[in-house]
Specification:
Elements: E1 13-16, E2 19-22, H1 34-52, H2 57-68, E3 72-73, E4 77-79, E5 82-88, E6 96-100, H3 103-108, E7 111-114, E8 125-132, E9 138-145, E10 150-157, E11 169-172, E12 177-178, E13 184-189, E14 207-213, E15 222-227, E16 232-238, E17 244-251, E18 257-267, E19 270-273, E20 277-280, E21 287-293, E22 296-301, E23 309-314, H4 315-321, E24 326-330, E25 336-343, E26 346-353, E27 356-363, E28 368-372, E29 378-384, E30 391-397, E31 400-407, E32 413-415, E33 428-436, E34 442-450, E35 460-463, H5 478-485, E36 489-493, H6 503-507, H7 515-530, E37 539-544, H8 546-557, E38 564-568, H9 587-590, H10 596-605, E39 620-625, H11 634-646, E40 653-658, H12 669-687
Parallel strand pairs: 35-36, 35-37, 37-38, 38-39, 39-40
Antiparallel strand pairs: 1-2, 3-5, 4-5, 5-6, 6-7, 8-9, 9-10, 10-11, 12-13, 13-14, 14-15, 16-17, 17-18, 18-19, 18-20, 21-22, 22-23, 23-24, 25-26, 26-27, 27-28, 29-30, 30-31, 31-32, 33-34, 34-36
Helix pairs in contact: 2-5, 2-12, 5-12, 7-8
């Protein structure tokens, strides 16, 4: 096989904040340019040939298809007065949604509500969200094509399924939110978003939160809120009783936000929104509305509580006094609050205790009721409504996909027999390890091994993320289950920058402190080696998105430490990430490269800018999607070209570029399985897993 496909080195050089920065692969940023299309095809051909030469590829494909393409069901949701759930018999590219008037009828089968498999010939059209109108007559749902973040709202009759003659509303990052009159719906609009497609890399610009009324043309949509700053985004949420509309206004991916409330009144069949009550208008802390009951909003906040607490906000009093009137309901504890619903008049909180989920119920005055004994390493979702008696909890573990449980009033839980999932995956044992980072901080991780794994160092897959206050838990991912089924050891690291241990843990892994995240994963890797779990040659580092950045930074800082690197859809050019699509939102974590201090910090760890010619890098498989319009593929393309140019050792550097897919959401089942199989094939071969 030839060494690597040729990548032309251009002559782009810039002076940024007094430093000379070469960008020889700037030309790879234009995804539609013929030269880039040709480059992608040559890289795809090279990767396919390289992977096909590895032993066991077809065996791993069959293993992963057996894991991914098996009967499964999701979280049961309330739908108007009935219920809905997603199912897949194991043969469909996309899950099908079913609805029924009773839970028993839903368990028995139900009727087809939405079948995304009928929307495209190749199975790449997917459902991004849906909601029923308050009167239970209409359904609004969001469709994504080829994994794009762009979505199109469509409408149908909830009972008959007949499509309604309505314009498709083009949006991005918008939940499906009906207003109280059942004919008005909210969505985010971005300039000429109707023309946005696929690999478009243009920054979004400002946004409008618009109100569309069914029966009227889109040209008559009303702007509820205009946000000219490209980093500001409004997230609407209606209370379950349809009396209130809440607007959470965030700047990019910052957790600190504003919180507004607007009363909903229906006059002559049309909703009228009251003037905004600006409950919080200085974004200094996090505010997440759970729901409202009797004009009292229940909100999760980290104000005076780094691990969060629940407060009750008196909406009437706040409106009258023009200030936030609240009282504490559930105080901050030793565990991080991560999610909540109100179900049957009870507050249900998900907390993380040492990164493991615990579900507790409270009365609305904060009186503890019970702890729900639901097995699993991760809560996939909670579903409940204040005036409905049913509470549904979906759980998963590293070897078990979603199981949905119904919680009873007495605290008992029962699994719902929604599908026959077939034989269980091999049994594993889980323990906790703790490494010490460069600054002395203790970094915990999950260590998961097959129960029959022999003693001694083993090929090990180390996974990490460390960013955006997102908690990392022992959940189900096809690559985890496949690696364990193949006999490998799995380590899941809880790095700073994540959301496992509160606001301080997050703050200590962002912006000027971002290097802490890379120090943390390096410390975990060294601890795995020092304790005899694995060796550097047997250690594969894996992460996606912000976790792809983690892999890129760690492998360029310590190329000697890892036997394999698997960065997926990673943010790898930290000097230009903010110039494309939604990239400027991530300034919250990475800083602003247009500011000298932030530029210096980013340059120090930016994977693309820390590739050194003459260095022996580990075997590396870079994965991306050619339609990824969140972390645009130029990151992976430029990093691939730089590594291939610099590689001094014999190890391969290949780029697995998927077509007709985006950042990951909505990917067809077989594509998910084959991607995970290739990652495992590559890692298994180079770490010695057999």
């Amino acid at each position: 096989m030839s060494r690597f496909p040729e990548s032309r080195r251009g002559e782009v050089v810039e002076t940024l904040h007094g430093q000379t920065i070469a960008d020889p692969y700037r030309w790879l940023e234009d995804a539609d340019a013929p030269e880039v299309v040709d480059w992608v095809e040559r890289q795809r051909d090279y990767a396919e040939r390289a992977l096909d030469e590895l032993p066991g590829r077809e065996r791993y494909r069959q293993l992963l298809r057996g894991i991914v393409m098996r009967p499964r069901a999701g979280l049961v949701r309330h739908l108007a007065d009935g219920f809905a759930v997603s199912r897949n018999d194991g043969t469909r590219p996309q899950d099908v949604w079913y609805a029924a008037d009773s839970l028993d009828d839903l368990v028995a089968g139900g009727r087809v509500l939405l079948d995304p498999n009928t929307w495209s010939a190749d199975g790449t059209s997917s459902l991004a969200g849906f909601a029923a109108s308050p009167d239970g007559v209409r359904l609004a749902y969001a469709v994504s094509e080829a994994g794009s973040d762009w979505q199109r709202f469509r409408f149908s009759n909830l009972i008959t399924g007949e499509a309604l003659d309505e314009p498709e509303l083009v949006t991005k990052f918008a939940p499906v939110v009906w207003l109280a009159d059942s004919v008005s719906i909210l969505y985010n609009a971005f300039g000429d978003s109707g023309e946005a497609e696929g690999t478009n890399t243009t920054a979004l610009g400002g946004s409008d939160l618009r109100l569309h009324t069914l029966g009227l043309p889109a040209s008559e949509d009303v702007t509820v809120l205009h946000l000219p700053d490209e980093r500001l985004m409004a997230w609407p949420q209606a209370s379950d009783d349809d009396r209130w509309l809440f607007l959470t206004i965030e700047r990019g991916t910052e957790s600190n936000c504003r919180l507004w409330a607007m009363a909903q009144d229906v006059v002559h069949g049309r909703v009228q929104l009251g003037e905004p009550i600006k409950l919080v208008d200085e974004p200094t802390h996090e505010w997440r509305v759970i729901d409202a009951v009797d004009d009292v909003a229940y909100v999760i906040t980290d104000l005076d509580a780094p691990r969060s607490r629940v407060v009750a906000v008196d909406l009437a009093a706040s409106a009258a006094e023009r200030r936030l009137v609240m009282r504490e309901i559930v105080p901050e504890g030793s565990a991080q609050i991560t999610d909540a619903v109100i179900s049957d008049g009870l507050l249900v909180l998900e907390t993380l205790e040492d990164a493991a989920p615990v579900l507790r119920r409270f009365r609305l005055d904060g009186t503890p009721v019970d702890v729900l004994d639901v097995p699993g390493g991760a809560v996939v979702g909670l579903s409940g409504r204040p005036a409905r008696p049913e509470l549904f909890v979906a759980m998963s573990s590293v070897t078990s996909p979603t199981t949905c449980y119904a919680a009873e009033a007495d605290g008992m839980v029962r699994p719902l027999p929604l599908v026959d999932a077939g034989d269980p995956l091999p049994e594993v044992r889980t323990s906790r390890g703790r490494a010490t980072s460069a600054d002395g901080t203790e970094v915990p991780y999950f260590l998961i091994e097959p129960v029959d794994a022999p003693a001694g160092p083993r090929p090990t897959l180390l996974y990490g993320y460390g960013g955006f206050r997102i908690p990392v838990v022992a959940d189900f991912r096809p690559i985890f289950a496949g690696w364990l089924a193949a006999g490998g050891t799995l380590a899941i690291a809880n790095l700073r920058g994540g959301g496992e241990f509160g606001a301080h843990w997050y703050e200590d892994g962002k912006r000027a402190h971002k290097q802490h995240v890379f120090d943390d994963v390096i410390a975990v890797a060294e601890h795995l080696i020092a304790t005899g779990v694995t060796t550097s040659r047997q250690l594969a580092l894996h992460g996606r998105s912000n976790g792809g950045l983690l892999v890129g930074a760690a492998m360029t800082q310590r190329p000697d430490l890892f036997g394999v690197a698997l960065p997926m859809v990673g943010v790898l050019d930290l000097l230009r990430f903010h110039k494309f699509t939604i990239g400027s939102a991530w300034i919250s974590d990475y800083g602003d490269p247009d500011v000298a201090e932030d530029f210096a910090t980013a340059l120090a760890y930016s994977p693309l800018h820390n590739v050194r010619p003459g260095t022996a890098y580990p075997p590396t498989l870079i994965a991306t999607g050619d339609h990824d319009d969140r972390v645009v593929p130029l990151h992976s393309h430029k990093f691939t070209a730089a590594l291939q140019h610099a590689q001094a050792g014999d190890a391969p550097i290949i780029s697995r570029i998927e077509t007709a897919t985006g950042h990951g959401a909505g990917k067809p089942a077989q594509m998910v399985a084959d991607e995970a199989a290739d990652l495992i094939t590559f890692a298994a071969h180079h770490t010695g897993l057999s």
